[in-house]
């Protein structure tokens, strides 16, 4: 894993960042095992506030701080939006902690560095996998709208997430959804001229242009992943569960049709196109396979799962889709909040009163 030069870690830009110790928090339980660290639910001792602590894994980093963590911190520090997870601060632990074993090595950060996040009750994968769980249409619209709103904000701020999938979408008990895990995220320039790595995005959610080896790409890569999540919510399970890259591409082509210069101008120049293009004739079957989906849902899905990234729908345009403006409308988490028991009682009383008055009027 790449490491950072000392000056890359400008935590000191904000004096309070990194100045408090992790002992300001009481760890309650481990809630996730990430690719480069564990995640704990914890309580801030002074305020009682519940937070999530993500420990930055240092075991492979003999020489410095992992670049993935630097990226995540730098990017999250500049993003402030209700659909993007809030990084509250960084805390440190000077030496090995009680629950840590093994001798200290030459790494001066060995004690541990933690990112402190607002706590969210679930991630989308965990929630969807619950036995008997079925999301209503209004709920799916509500999650999709928040996912697109958060992603549109990232894209406007020239950040590509590059790992959109259920386990990185956090949801609280009020129905708020936030994008999390910016470990693979990076800034991009609007001309898409820089060469970026194509080994990003978890395989099942990876778009065809990355699987074909392109190194010049933009926000459309995240929109493909959003399409995969959308289809998964409607269908009840992942739609492209490939085992390896060739199988992944094959699953995509079987549903979305084969790529060619007519529907995707320039595709034949992408590095691995000639090796990986389909060998047998195929046609786009998306509308036929998912014909039982709601008409507006299918129209939107079709635009998200468009092979040519330059024709794929953007987050902004997706938010304007008919799907979000037709019945049942997406439920609004803010309205849930105001629906406290007091309001419910008042509302029911008003309905009963109206009904009684109507009856007596008719009599
Ligand atoms: P990784 O990059 O290692 O995948 P994540 O940031 O995705 O790390 O965290 C791993 C898991 O921990 C998530 O899938 C989620 O289940 C849980 N998690 C992460 N952040 C939070 C949070 N703020 N609140 C609650 N759970 C979280
Ligand atoms: Mg993750």
UniProtKB/TrEMBL annotation:
What Gene Ontology cellular component terms go with this record? cyclin-dependent protein kinase holoenzyme complex; nucleus
Keyword check for Nucleotide-binding, yes or no. Answer: yes
Q: Where is the Protein kinase domain?
A: 25-324
Q: Which CDD domains match?
A: STKc_CDK9_like
Q: Which InterPro entries does this entry report, sorted A to Z?
A: CDK, Kinase-like_dom_sf, Prot_kinase_dom, Protein_kinase_ATP_BS, Ser/Thr_kinase_AS
Q: Where does ATP bind?
A: 54
Q: What's the catalysed reaction?
A: L-seryl-[protein] + ATP = O-phospho-L-seryl-[protein] + ADP + H(+); L-threonyl-[protein] + ATP = O-phospho-L-threonyl-[protein] + ADP + H(+); [DNA-directed RNA polymerase] + ATP = phospho-[DNA-directed RNA polymerase] + ADP + H(+)
The record's PROSITE patterns line, in alphabetical order, gives: PROTEIN_KINASE_ATP, PROTEIN_KINASE_DOM, PROTEIN_KINASE_ST
Query: Single Gene Ontology BP term?
Result: response to virus
- MF-aspect GO terms: ATP binding; cyclin-dependent protein serine/threonine kinase activity; RNA polymerase II CTD heptapeptide repeat kinase activity
Keyword annotations from UniProtKB, A to Z: ATP-binding, Kinase, Nucleotide-binding, Phosphoprotein, Serine/threonine-protein kinase, Transferase
Q: Which SMART domains match?
A: S_TKc
In the record, the note on similarity to other proteins reads: Belongs to the protein kinase superfamily. CMGC Ser/Thr protein kinase family. CDC2/CDKX subfamily.
Q: What is the protein's quaternary organization?
A: Interacts with CYCT1-3.
PANTHER family in UniProt: CELL DIVISION PROTEIN KINASE, CYCLIN-DEPENDENT KINASE 12
Tell me what this protein is called.
Cyclin-dependent kinase C-2-like
